[in-house]
């Protein structure tokens, strides 16, 4: 009987020891899937807010760029006796003496007509007998509607910025208050 008891104790001991053996380190598949699901839920909540904030920032930048171009136009008119023939003429690389085709009044990036998700379309109008433009129109439209911006903007010589949420803005649209 002693031998039987001894064997029984050894087999019991082996079962108990094997039950206490530490499992392999790491996470189970279910735990990883739960973490991934939580991250996706947080992303689904945060991304639309981020996109709305980006659109609002682009629109604010577009309005400020319209103001910058309007101020540059006023300066150009004072210095050269008429409005600029193009956005490129308002800009130009810094260095050298400013002239009517390289006035250096706005930065090169803005003079390309694309900035912060908006496209700026400039059109000088009402050319006098001396070849000087007496007015201009400036439109700022989103590069990708509802992605880089929602609102469209327009300004001209009186320096009032108008906006439209559905189509290209014009002088007939509501002014920004």
Q: Would you give an account of this structure?
A:
The chain is of the alpha+beta class and 177 residues long. 44% of the residues lie in helices and 17% in strands. It has a domain at 30-81 and 114-164. The protein has four helices and five strands. Strand 4 (152-156) and strand 5 form a beta hairpin. The radius of gyration is 34 Å and the shape is elongated.
Quick overview of this protein structure:
With 177 residues, this protein is an alpha+beta fold. Helices cover 44% and strands 17% of the residues. The longest helix has 52 residues, at 29-80.
SSE succession: HHHHEEEEE
Distance between the termini: 102 Å
**Class computed from helices, strands and strand pairing:** alpha+beta
Model regions low in confidence, pLDDT < 50 over at least 5 residues: none
Q: Could you tell me the mean pLDDT?
A: 88
Strand content: 15-25%
The biggest beta sheet reads: 5 strands, antiparallel
Q: How do the strands line up in the largest sheet?
A: 1-2-3-4-5
Shape: elongated
The number of helical runs is: 4
DSSP helix fraction: 40-55%
Number of strands: 5
Please give the radius of gyration in angstroms.
34 Å
Please write out the topology:
Layout: H1 2-19, H2 29-80, H3 87-90, H4 108-111, E1 114-115, E2 118-127, E3 133-142, E4 152-156, E5 162-164
Antiparallel strand pairs: 1-2, 2-3, 3-4, 4-5
Core attributes:
44% helix, 177 residues, alpha+beta, 5-stranded antiparallel sheet
